[in-house]
Automatic annotation (TrEMBL):
Ranges spanned by the short sequence motif 'KMSKS' region, renumbered to the chain: 611-615
Gene Ontology molecular function: aminoacyl-tRNA deacylase activity; ATP binding; leucine-tRNA ligase activity
CDD domains attached to this UniProt entry: Anticodon_Ia_Leu_BEm, LeuRS_core
Matches recorded under Pfam families: Anticodon_1 (PF08264), tRNA-synt_1 (PF00133), tRNA-synt_1_2 (PF13603)
Domain of life: Bacteria
Organism: Microbacterium pseudoresistens
Record-linked SUPFAM superfamilies: Anticodon-binding domain of a subclass of class I aminoacyl-tRNA synthetases, Nucleotidylyl transferase, ValRS/IleRS/LeuRS editing domain
Residue ranges annotated for the Aminoacyl-tRNA synthetase class Ia domain, each copy included: 12-209, 448-650
Protein family per UniProt: Belongs to the class-I aminoacyl-tRNA synthetase family.
Leucyl-tRNA synthetase editing domain sequence ranges: 222-433
UniProt protein name: Leucine--tRNA ligase
Root EC class: ligase
Residues passing through the membrane, by range: none
Lineage: Bacteria, Bacillati, Actinomycetota, Actinomycetes, Micrococcales
Length: 847
C-alpha cells in the first residue's frame, strides 16, 4: 500500500500513453463530434521554464476535458522555429542556427512530455523544416497570382541593431519589438502582402467573434485596422494644374476651414515649396530634415508644440471660394489619407493648437450649445426639468479663447445651405452636395497598412522569386518548391543591411525557370508571421507532400474550436492568421472565414511580480520541479492559484498543499472496498448529492475557465469521501466508489498521472483519459426545501415552498410577489418587514 514517487508515477503513465498512442486524434471514420483544441505553438528559445507552465497545463486540461465529454479531440503541437533569436544565437557562437533550433526543440519536447501533456505527437511540425516552409512559398505564389503579393519602394521601418526591416506591428513606441533599438525610416524595395484589400472584412467579421474572443482583443484589432468614414474633398491650388484631395471625417465643417496643411514629407509639399521664395525653400528644407528624424508617434503626440512652415501658396475652398494659406506641418502624416488636410481649428484640436501657435483665424461652424433633441439629458428637480449640462453661450465656448475645440453635437451655423442641420445630417448633406458638384465623394480610410514581409535575414523562408538581368520577376514554379536554404557554411550571418543569402553565390545564381536565361534568386526571407498565419491548417495533414493541407480534413476539423495563447499576440499573429484564412476562403479551399472560433488569453506564472526570463535570472526551473514536487502537484497548484486569465505569482503557488491533496485522493482510491461492477444507486445520500452536484457543475466551471473553483470542489469531495469512509458505511459503501471514480475522472484534466493511478487502484483498465464523465442524476440535484409562513400583522396569509438556503432579501421579494399577500397589503402602508429565513416573513402594516 505504498504510493509511487512523483517521477515513478510519471514515467509509468507517460510510457503507457506513448506505447498506446492514447491521445492520437480519431480518423475520418470516427463518428464522435470533433473538437480542435490548439495552444499557440512555442518558439524554441530555450528549455521550458515555470513561466510557461500555466499555458501548457491549461491547453492540456481543455483537450482532456473534451475527451471526457465524448469528443474526438485534436490537440497537436509544433514549433515556430524560424526567426531572429536562433540566428542571433548562431552568430554569437559561430554555429548553425539549425543546431541551436533543433536542440531546443528536442529539449522542449522532452519537457512537455514530462509535464503529462496529451498531444497527438504524430502530427509534430517545425516551420523551419523544408517540408513545412515549402508551403509558405506555395502560399506566397498563391498570393502573387491573386495580386495580393507585390513589390514597392517605400520608406520602411528599419531596426539599425538587427539590421532588418520591421512590420508596423513590430514597432512598439517607436522601438524594435525585439531588441528595443530606436527604429528609423529607410527607403527600400520590398515585398508586401495586400492585407488592406481585406480591411473591411477583417473589421466587420470581428462582430461574429463578440463574446467568443476576449473583448479587449477585439477592440485592439478594431483600433489597429482603424476605419474612418467621411469624404474625399478636392481643393484647387492657385498656380497649380490639377486639384489636391484631402480626406476628412468632418465634411460638414468645410465652411470652417481657415488654412490647409500638407505633410512635409509628402511629395506635394516639396512641389509646392519649389514654387515659393528662396527663403521659404530653405526654411522648408531645414524643416523637412528635422521632420525626417522624428517618429510618427512623436508627430502625433498632442503635447508637443506645433511646428510648421508657411509655403506662400493658397488652396481654394470648393464650397465658398475662400483662399486658404498652405502650411507644411509635421502633425499631418504623409502616408495617411492623402497626406494633406483642410484645417478646421474651431472643431479639431490639432488644428486649433496649430492656429493658436501661428495666429491663424478660427471660425465656428457648429453651434454646440444649440440643443439637439435628446442629446442634453434632463433630470427632475422638485418637479421641474433641469438640463444636466448648464447652458453655455457660444461666446463662452469660443475655441480661439478657451483653446478647446468644439467636437460635440450641435447645429450648423455660418455654413450656407447647411445652416440649422445637426452635425450628423450636415455630414450626409455635405457629401451629397460635393458628389453632385464633382468636388468630392464619400470615402473610407484605414490605419491598417499593407504587410511588409521581406526580411534581410538568413533564418527564414526564402522568397520563391528570381530576378532576371533586365529587371524582370519570375515566380519559381510550384513543382520546383521548396527553394531550400543553402548551407550556412562560408556565409557571414552578421547583420549588414542586406540579406546574408545574397553572398551564397552558388545558391543565388540560377536561371529563369521560364526562359533558361541567367537570373538571381531573391535573397530575402519572409517574416516568420507568414509561417504562423496558417500552421493550424498544416496540422490536419502534416506530412502531405501533395498539398499544404487536405481540404477534406479541413472541412472535418477546422476552424479551431479553442485557441489558447498569450495576449501579446492580440494584434499581429491573430490579424495575419485571420487575413490568410479569408484569402484561403476566397480560393475556395476552406468553408469558413475566421480561423479561431473561441480565444482564451491565459496568464503567466510570474516571479516577484515580473515575467520569468533568462536575462532577468529569475527562472524557476522546470525540469527539477518535475522530480519534486512533480508534474501533477505543479499543475494542481497552478490551477488552484487563480483564474486562467490572470497572471499568478509563483510565491502564491503552494505545491505542498497540492501534494497532500493528491496523496489523499490516491489513498481513497486504494481504500475503496466494493466490487468494480457495483451499481451506483444506493449508499450515503449526502456524499451522493455532493458527487452529483459536482457532475452537474463541473462542465460550466471548465468551459468558463474556472479551474481554481473546480480544484476547490474536488478538494471538498476528497474531504467528504474520507469522512464517509471513516464513519458511515465505510469503504464498502457504493457511494464511496461512485465518488472516488468521479474524482479520478475529473482529476484527470488537471493531474493526469494521479488520475490514471487511481483508476488502476479502483480496478479499471487504463486510460482514464478516455472515460466519459457521467451524467448527474437529476433526482440527486434537488435541493432541500423549507416552508415559509407569510404573515401580515402576525396573521398567516399564505405559505411558500422555498429552497432551504434562501437568502432573506430573496425570500422577502418572493413574499411580496405573492398574489394573496399583495391583496392583504393593498391600500396599507408597510411600516416594517421582519424576515427569518426560511421560516417566516411578517409585514407590519397600518391603515
Ligand atoms: C477636417 C476636420 C474637421 C477633421 C474636424 C476632423 C475634425 P481619423 O479619425 O483618424 O481618420 N487627417 C486627415 N489626413 C490626415 C493626415 N495625413 N495626417 C493627420 N491628420 C489627418 O482622422 C481623420 C481626420 O484627421 C480628418 O478629418 C482630417 O481632419 C485629419 F472638425 O478634416 B479632419
Amino acid at each position: 500500500d505504498e504510493q509511487l514517487s512523483a517521477p515513478a508515477l510519471q514515467v509509468k503513465w507517460q510510457k503507457y500513453w506513448a506505447e498506446h498512442d492514447t491521445f492520437r486524434a480519431g480518423g475520418a471514420d470516427d463518428m464522435r463530434p470533433r473538437k480542435y483544441v490548439l495552444g499557440m505553438f512555442p518558439y524554441p528559445s530555450g528549455d521550458m521554464h515555470m513561466g510557461h507552465a500555466e499555458n501548457y497545463a491549461y491547453v492540456d486540461s481543455v483537450a482532456r476535458y473534451w475527451r471526457h465529454r465524448g469528443h474526438n479531440v485534436l490537440n497537436p503541437i509544433g514549433w515556430d522555429s524560424f526567426g531572429l533569436p536562433a540566428e542571433n544565437a548562431a552568430i554569437k557562437r559561430g554555429a548553425d542556427p539549425r543546431e541551436w533550433t533543433y536542440q531546443n526543440i528536442d529539449q522542449q519536447k522532452e519537457s512537455l512530455k514530462r509535464f503529462g501533456t496529451s498531444y497527438d505527437w504524430s502530427r509534430v511540425l517545425h516551420t523551419s523544416d523544408p517540408e513545412y516552409y515549402r508551403w509558405n512559398q506555395w502560399l506566397f505564389l498563391k498570393l502573387y497570382e491573386r495580386g495580393l503579393a507585390y513589390r514597392k519602394k517605400s520608406p520602411v521601418n528599419w531596426c539599425p541593431n538587427d539590421q532588418t526591416v520591421l512590420a508596423n506591428e513590430q514597432v512598439v513606441d517607436g522601438r524594435c519589438e525585439r531588441c528595443g533599438a530606436e527604429v528609423v525610416k529607410k527607403k527600400l524595395t520590398q515585398w508586401y502582402f495586400k492585407i488592406t484589400d481585406y480591411a473591411d472584412r477583417l473589421l466587420d467579421d470581428l462582430n461574429q467573434l463578440e463574446g467568443r474572443w476576449p473583448h479587449k482583443v477585439l477592440q485592439m484589432q478594431r483600433n489597429w485596422i482603424g476605419r474612418s468614414v467621411g469624404a474625399d474633398v478636392d481643393f484647387e491650388i492657385e498656380g497649380r494644374e490639377g486639384a489636391v484631395t484631402v480626406f476628412s471625417t468632418r465634411p460638414d465643417t468645410l465652411h470652417g476651414a481657415t488654412f490647409f496643411v500638407v505633410a512635409p514629407d509628402a511629395e506635394l509639399a516639396a512641389e509646392l515649396a519649389e514654387g515659393a521664395s528662396a527663403e521659404v525653400r530653405e526654411r522648408f528644407q531645414e524643416y523637412l530634415s528635422a521632420v525626417q528624424k522624428t517618429t510618427d508617434i512623436d508627430r502625433q503626440s498632442t503635447d508637443r508644440p506645433k511646428t510648421g512652415v508657411f509655403l506662400e501658396r493658397y488652396a481654394i475652398n470648393p464650397v465658398n471660394g475662400e483662399r486658404l494659406p498652405i502650411w507644411a506641418a509635421d502633425y499631418v502624416l504623409a502616408d495617411y489619407g492623402h497626406g494633406a488636410v483642410m484645417a478646421v481649428p474651431a472643431h479639431d484640436q490639432r488644428d486649433l493648437d496649430f492656429a493658436r501657435a501661428f495666429d491663424l483665424p478660427v471660425k465656428v461652424v457648429v453651434d454646440t450649445t444649440a440643443p439637439i433633441t435628446g442629446t442634453i439629458p434632463v433630470i427632475e428637480v422638485d418637479g421641474e426639468g433641469v438640463p444636466v449640462e448648464p447652458a453655455a453661450t457660444l461666446d463662452e465656448q469660443n475655441p480661439a479663447v478657451t483653446g478647446v475645440a468644439l467636437t460635440g453635437e450641435g447645429r450648423m451655423v455660418n455654413s450656407g445651405e447647411l445652416n440649422g442641420l445637426s452635425k450628423r445630417n450636415a455630414i450626409a448633406r455635405a457629401i451629397e452636395t460635393l458628389t453632385a458638384s464633382g468636388k468630392g465623394r464619400a470615402a473610407k480610410n484605414y490605419r491598417l497598412r499593407d504587410w511588409l514581409i521581406s526580411r534581410q535575414r538568413f533564418w527564414g523562408t526564402p522568397i520563391p522569386i528570381v530576378h532576371t538581368e533586365d529587371g524582370g520577376i519570375t515566380p519559381v514554379p510550384e513543382d520546383q518548391l521548396p527553394v531550400r536554404l543553402p548551407s550556412v557554411d562560408g556565409l557571414d550571418l552578421a547583420p549588414k543591411g542586406s540579406s546574408p543569402l545574397g553572398a551564397a553565390e552558388k545558391w543565388v545564381q540560377t536561371t529563369d525557370p521560364a526562359t533558361g536565361d541567367p537570373a538571381l534568386r531573391d535573397p530575402d526571407t519572409m517574416d516568420t508571421f507568414v509561417d504562423s498565419s496558417w500552421y493550424f491548417l498544416r496540422f490536419l495533414s502534416p506530412t502531405s507532400d501533395e498539398v499544404a493541407f487536405d481540404v477534406d480534413e479541413a472541412r472535418r476539423w477546422a476552424p479551431v474550436d479553442s485557441y489558447i495563447g498569450g495576449v501579446e499576440h492580440a494584434i499581429l499573429h491573430l490579424l495575419y492568421a485571420r487575413f490568410i484564412t479569408k484569402v484561403l476562403f476566397d480560393m475556395g479551399m476552406i468553408d469558413f472565414t475566421e480561423p479561431f472560433s473561441t480565444l482564451v488569453n491565459q496568464g503567466m506564472v510570474l516571479l516577484d511580480g515580473s515575467k520569468m526570463s533568462k536575462s532577468k535570472g529569475n527562472l524557476v526551473e522546470f525540469s527539477a520541479s518535475m522530480d519534486d514536487p512533480g508534474a501533477d502537484a505543479v499543475r494542481v497548484a497552478i490551477a488552484f492559484a487563480g483564474p486562467v486569465e490572470d497572471d499568478i505569482n509563483w510565491e502564491d503557488v503552494s505545491t505542498t498543499g497540492a501534494q497532500k491533496f493528491l496523496a489523499r485522493a490516491q489513498r481513497i482510491a486504494r481504500d475503496v472496498d466494493s466490487p468494480v461492477d457495483v451499481v451506483f444507486n444506493s449508499g450515503d445520500a449526502a456524499l451522493r448529492r455532493i458527487t452529483h452536484r459536482l457532475l452537474a457543475d463541473a462542465p460550466s466551471l471548465v468551459e468558463q475557465t474556472k479551474f481554481n473553483v473546480l480544484v476547490a470542489r474536488l478538494m471538498e469531495l476528497v474531504n467528504t469521501i474520507r469522512k464517509t469512509i471513516d464513519s458511515g458505511a465505510g469503504a464498502a459503501d457504493p457511494a464511496v466508489r461512485e465518488a472516488a471514480e468521479t474524482l479520478a475522472v475529473m482529476l484527470d484534466i488537471i493531474a493526469p498521472h494521479t488520475a490514471e493511478e487511481m483508476w488502476e487502484s479502483l480496478g479499471h483498465e487504463p486510460s482514464v483519459g478516455l472515460v466519459a464523465w457521467r451524467q448527474a442524476d437529476p433526482a440527486l440535484l434537488v435541493e432541500a426545501t423549507a416552508t415559509t409562513a407569510v404573515q401580515v400583522n402576525g396573521k398567516v396569509r399564505t405559505t411558500l415552498e422555498v429552497p432551504a438556503r434562501i437568502a432573506g432579501a430573496e425570500l422577502e421579494a418572493l413574499a411580496r410577489a405573492d398574489e394573496k399577500v399583495q391583496r392583504a397589503l393593498e391600500g396599507k402602508e408597510i411600516v416594517r418587514v421582519i424576515v427569518r429565513a426560511p421560516k417566516i416573513v411578517n409585514f407590519a402594516v397600518k391603515g
